[in-house]
Structures are given as C-alpha cells and as structure tokens.
UniProtKB/TrEMBL annotation:
The keyword Flavoprotein does not apply. Gene3D superfamilies: P-loop containing nucleotide triphosphate hydrolases (3.40.50.300). InterPro entries: AAA+_ATPase, ABC_transporter-like_ATP-bd, ABC_transporter-like_CS, ABC_transporter_ATP-binding, P-loop_NTPase. It is a peripheral membrane protein. It holds the Pfam family ABC_tran. Keywords: Antibiotic resistance, ATP-binding, Nucleotide-binding, Transport. The keyword Isomerase does not apply. One of its GO terms (molecular function) is ATP binding. Residues 16-246 form the ABC transporter domain. It is found in: Cell membrane. PROSITE patterns: ABC_TRANSPORTER_1, ABC_TRANSPORTER_2. This is ATP-binding cassette domain-containing protein.
Length: 328
C-alpha cells in the first residue's frame, strides 16, 4: 500500500514495492498475497513471529528465491525481468555472517572488492575507507576469527557496502549482540539512511523497530496484520491513558467530577483517563479541565508498547491488563 508525502498527497517514490506477493513451499503457504511500498531513504521494518515469512520476503526481494506470484520492483527494476540489475543496486546482510574467519578483516574487504570487479587501487581505497568508517582499522590485519560479535557484524555490513548499494536488506542484523554493540549498529543504520540509503530490516527486537523504523509491517501467518509508524501501531491496542496528578485535594476532586470514565487513585491524588494519546483527545481533555477551572500539576501520556502490539496482532498472548508504560 502506498505512502504519501505531506504536501498534496502524491505517492512517495518507492525504492521497493511488492503487489500480491505469494510464496509456497510444497503445500505450506508462506506468503499469502502481501503488498509492500518502501519509500526511498527510509527504514522499513518487518516484524512477526518465527515462521511469519519475514526472511522469505528478504530472500525474494534480494533475488535469492523466486516468488510464485507478485509484481515486484526493486530500485526501479522489475524483479522478474531484470534480476541482474536488481543485484547490482542492493546489499544483503543475512542472519548468519558472510565473514570468512580464516582471513583478515582487510582480506575480507578486498575479496568483496574483487567480487564487485573494482580496479585494484580503487578496491584498496574503498576497503580502507570502510574499515576506518566502521572503526576496524586497528583490527584490519587480524584474522576475523579473533573479532568480537559486534566487530564481526560491523565488518559484515562494511562488506555489504563495498558496492555502494542504495538499498540494503538487513535480516536480523543485531541478533546475539550485546546492548552496546546493538546501539552501535543502530547508529550505523541511521547514518546510512541519512546518506540516502533505503533499509529493509527484519528484527526480533521490538525496541529496535521502535528506535529505527519509519514504518513497520507486522506479518502473521504470511499476511500483513498491520502497518504503520510505531506510534500508529501502538494506538491499535487498548490500554492507553493519560495520567493527571494534583497536589491540591480540592482540584483533584473537581477534576474527577468534571471528567468521565476516570480511574481514581485517591492516595496519590491522580486520575487515569482512557486515551489513545492523540493530539485531538489531549486537546479535548485539556478543554474539559479548563471549563472546570482546574489545572493539573503533572500530565503524562501512557501508551502500549510494541510488545503489546506484537502479542495482540500475532495471537501470541492476550494484551496485558496493564500495559508497560513509557511516559512522554
């Protein structure tokens, strides 16, 4: 489904698009007619439980697997008619590292330069620049087998960038990394997108999609269960509310009388008001307080997080009665 710009509703140019994408393995239907529209220069995340079809989408769009049906375009090329042109413009980092542990980091980079048919001098220059960019210069002459998980993952992405791809598929790029290495990878991805690169990301970490993705698709049983920004998806799940705190007991009682469907917390002098956190609902709430001549000492918006969205949309569990709260 297309996304639109904010000036006149024109469709944003797509780096990747899929219409009616279907794939089966024998009698197992893996992708059941999904549509994707990924604007250029954005991060697009695929979420879903194991077996939802995320990796199959990446394999098809990166020409590693053939779709059964679907109109597919990557980088302006029809995937069925021009797979070589598609391959020339993309980079792929899979769940398992493509790094050769038996050779050095620099040799891994130069091997990729040779595979991209770069002239020797240019290949060495590109390799050196990328090793420096990913803070691997000091380890360039060491065997990759000595690298930490975070270093190896950085080398993996550096190798992906040797051919200067404008579209990159990252299939669970931070799985198994410690929190510091994961945050380093997030910064690298942000820098790539700032430079105009389009990233299609699959991840097991919902926080990762929340941090990075401009748009998120939740896959379940080979179909799209929902699509939107992280904030839009959070509003699909009930449990959001606004919490009002007061220091004056009289103001607290007046606000409780003026507002409908509130949950009172008498000891804390606070009220919880059901809300999706939208600007419209917040304005309405503030107008009702103004009409009652009451001003809250503190207002916080609490919304369900992507964990709650994931469980609700994929049927893994019921939505919790009390969602995790992150005040904004």
């Amino acid at each position: 489904m297309p996304t639109f710009d904010q000036e006149g509703g024109r469709p944003s140019p797509a780096a990747v698009s899929a219409v009616g994408l279907r794939k089966s393995y024998g009698e197992k239907l893996v992708l059941d007619g999904i549509d994707l529209h990924i604007p250029a220069g954005s991060v697009f995340a695929l979420l879903g439980p194991n077996g939802a079809g995320k990796t199959t989408v990446v394999k098809i769009l990166s020409t590693l697997v053939t779709a059964d049906e679907g109109e597919l375009h990557v980088g302006g090329h029809n995937l069925a008619d021009a797979p070589q042109a598609v391959r020339a413009g993309i980079g792929v980092t899979g769940q398992f590292s493509a790094v050769d542990d038996l050779i050095t980091g620099e040799e891994n980079m130069l091997l990729m330069a040779d595979l991209h048919h770069l002239p020797r001098a240019r290949g060495r220059r590109v390799a050196a620049e990328l090793l420096e960019r990913f803070d691997l210069t000091g380890a360039a002459e060491k065997p990759a087998s000595t690298y930490s998980g975070g270093m190896k993952r950085r080398l993996d992405i550096a190798m992906t960038l040797v051919g200067s791809p404008r579209i990159i598929f990252l299939d669970e790029p931070t799985t198994g990394l410690d929190p510091r290495s994961r945050h380093t990878m997030w910064q690298i991805i942000r820098e790539l997108v700032t430079g105009g690169v389009t990233v299609l990301l699959t991840t097991q970490y919902l926080e990762e999609a929340d941090e990075l993705a401009d748009r998120i698709v939740v896959l379940n049983d080979g179909r799209i269960a929902a699509e939107g920004s992280a904030e839009e998806l959070k509003r699909l799940v009930p449990g959001g509310h606004v919490r009002l705190r007061f220091t004056d007991p009289a103001d607290y009682r007046s606000a409780a009388s003026a507002l409908c469907e509130v949950t009172r917390h008498d000891e804390a002098l606070s009220l919880s008001v059901p809300s999706d956190g939208s600007q419209r609902e917040l304005r309405s709430l503030l107008d009702r307080l103004d009409s009652a001549g009451v001003e809250a000492d503190e207002l916080t918006v609490h919304t369900p997080d992507l964990d709650d969205v994931f469980f609700a949309l994929t049927g893994g569990a019921n939505v919790p009665d009390q969602p995790k709260e992150s005040a904004r």
